[in-house]
């Protein structure tokens, strides 16, 4: 950027509602935002975030672990592989636990430094950055894009627009393909795609998520952040006067006005703002940060990079637009470590440590007991009382185990089954009908509590105990 007196923001020439018609109050025509390319510290951080996050998204799907895809949500088999761990639907509470941690993390970082998530890690921001980069490579700079959109449709314009949308759609479909690859093994998905043998559901979801990516990142862009995202609406509830936000130093910058580089702003009665509007031109949501903090600001800090570059060229100190706090702008002391930050930190640490510990101590064995409800109990020919149960054994381990089944809780009770040893292959749910018999003389109540214990023969630590009810008559 060599000219600090750049022209003001230009937009597409959409017809404006006529004053007095009422339409100006109810509806405002959308004006396309043309974000100008910017370079600087925060731009490099955003680029790094895009590369890392998209690298993880597109690359992790191709990793293998112990003979299977490293991250795979196998819905038909009801198994979810995450590197060396295999989760089942019974482990869903771990996912709920993780969502609570994610929500608290959002609260923590928002209270600390505003919309860091929106500016650097939100999928809408990440994919929009890629689509904007493609648009610049195909159509040129901001001014060239504006000129192209205003020009008449010519073969050159048609080819340029067609090429851009072709690349957008191809990238969006690749995104949808990768997303589906986390639910259907991506290598199998690739072979099926090359043979034009994709199933109907895989085809539907590839095109669905491809269309969503193309629409959100290519067409809607800032409208998702401004109108569709609920976070923009309630973020202010998590701000306080010590929250780091991007702000324009009005006392230093006003009165704004253009001037030559060697003019002393104080002698000219001007502030440091040269009114170049670059902070507006680089904003992906099209706001003017000089109007104060607005809910449309996603915290990307592009305006900081643009303004610092202008300040360097003018020989002024950086920081006319900067990360600061409301207290600092008012000349008061900023307290980054404050009660809510400390509380969020403690709760987040406790929940994170608890989740890691719970997963490390997780028992890859489930035992569910279903009592036969068709009869309360029945008597055997030899005078014993019998209750019938169906045991559901789930071996969530990656290897087969032979388990020994035993019961306890009442004196003299016995299991009626061919063998107390049960073999359950890896990742298999086995239904096992069993009967428990006892002499009614030992029963002192109608409903009694008994326990079923399942223990792996080759690994005694792999044990699960569950309780059940045993019903019978009371003989007095």
UniProtKB/TrEMBL annotation:
Amino acid composition bias (Low complexity), ranges on this chain: 7-22
Gene3D superfamilies listed in its UniProt record: Immunoglobulins (2.60.40.10)
Any single GO CC term annotated in Swiss-Prot or TrEMBL for this entry: plasma membrane
Region of interest: Disordered: 1-22
Transmembrane segments: 45-65, 92-113, 166-183, 203-220, 341-359
InterPro entries named among the record's database cross-references: 4Fe4S_Fe-S-bd, 4Fe4S_Fe_S_CS, Cyt_c_oxidase_cbb3_FixG, Electron_Trans/Redox, FixG_C, Ig-like_fold
Start and end residues of each 4Fe-4S ferredoxin-type domain: 264-292
Domain of life the protein comes from: Bacteria
Keyword terms of this UniProt record: 4Fe-4S, Electron transport, Iron, Iron-sulfur, Membrane, Metal-binding, Transmembrane, Transmembrane helix, Transport
GO molecular function, one term: 4 iron, 4 sulfur cluster binding
PANTHER family: FERREDOXIN-TYPE PROTEIN NAPH
Name of this protein: Cytochrome c oxidase accessory protein FixG
Species whose genome carries this gene: Thiogranum longum
């Amino acid at each position: 950027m060599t000219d600090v007196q750049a022209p003001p923001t230009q937009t597409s020439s959409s017809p404006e509602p006529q004053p007095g018609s009422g339409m100006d109050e109810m509806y405002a025509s959308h004006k396309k935002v043309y974000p100008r390319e910017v370079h600087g510290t925060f731009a490099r951080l955003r680029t790094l975030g895009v590369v890392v996050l998209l690298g993880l998204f597109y690359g992790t799907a191709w990793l293998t672990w112990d003979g299977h895809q490293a991250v795979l949500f196998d819905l038909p088999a009801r198994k979810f592989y995450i590197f060396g761990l295999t989760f089942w639907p019974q482990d869903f509470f771990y996912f709920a636990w993780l969502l609570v941690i994610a929500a608290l993390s959002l609260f923590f970082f928002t209270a600390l430094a505003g919309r860091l998530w929106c500016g650097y890690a939100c999928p809408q921001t990440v994919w929009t950055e890629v689509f904007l980069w493609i648009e610049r490579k195909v159509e040129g700079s901001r001014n060239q894009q504006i000129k192209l959109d205003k020009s008449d449709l010519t073969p050159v314009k048609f080819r340029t627009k067609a090429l851009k949308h072709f690349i957008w759609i191809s990238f969006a479909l690749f995104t949808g393909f990768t997303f589906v690859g986390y639910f259907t093994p991506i290598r199998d998905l690739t072979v099926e795609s090359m043979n034009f043998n994709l199933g109907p559901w895989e085809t539907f979801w590839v095109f669905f998520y491809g269309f969503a990516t193309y629409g959100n990142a290519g067409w809607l862009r800032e409208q998702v952040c401004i109108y569709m995202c609920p976070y923009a609406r309630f973020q202010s509830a998590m701000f306080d006067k010590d929250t780091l936000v991007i702000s324009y130093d009005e006392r230093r910058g006003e009165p704004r006005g253009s001037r030559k580089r060697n003019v002393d702003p104080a002698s000219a009665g001007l502030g440091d703002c040269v009114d170049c509007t670059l902070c507006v031109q680089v904003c992906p949501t099209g706001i003017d940060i000089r109007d104060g903090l607005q809910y449309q600001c996603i915290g990307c800090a592009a305006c900081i990079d643009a303004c610092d570059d202008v300040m360097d060229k003018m020989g002024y100190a950086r920081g006319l637009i900067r990360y600061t706090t409301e207290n600092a702008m008012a000349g008061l002391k900023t307290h980054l470590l404050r009660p809510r930050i400390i509380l969020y930190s403690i709760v987040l640490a406790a929940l994170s440590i608890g989740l890691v510990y719970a997963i490390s101590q997780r028992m890859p064995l489930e035992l569910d007991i279903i009592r036969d409800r068709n009869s309360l109990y029945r008597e055997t020919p030899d005078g014993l009382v019998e209750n019938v149960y169906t045991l559901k054994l789930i071996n969530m381990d990656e290897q087969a185990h032979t388990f020994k089944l035993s019961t306890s809780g009442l004196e003299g009770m016995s299991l009626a089954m061919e063998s107390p040893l049960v073999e359950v292959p890896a990742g298999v749910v086995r239904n096992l009908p069993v009967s428990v018999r006892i002499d009614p003389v030992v029963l002192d109540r109608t409903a009694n509590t008994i326990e079923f214990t399942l223990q792996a023969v080759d690994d005694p630590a792999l044990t699960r105990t569950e309780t059940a009810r045993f019903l019978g008559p009371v003989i007095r």
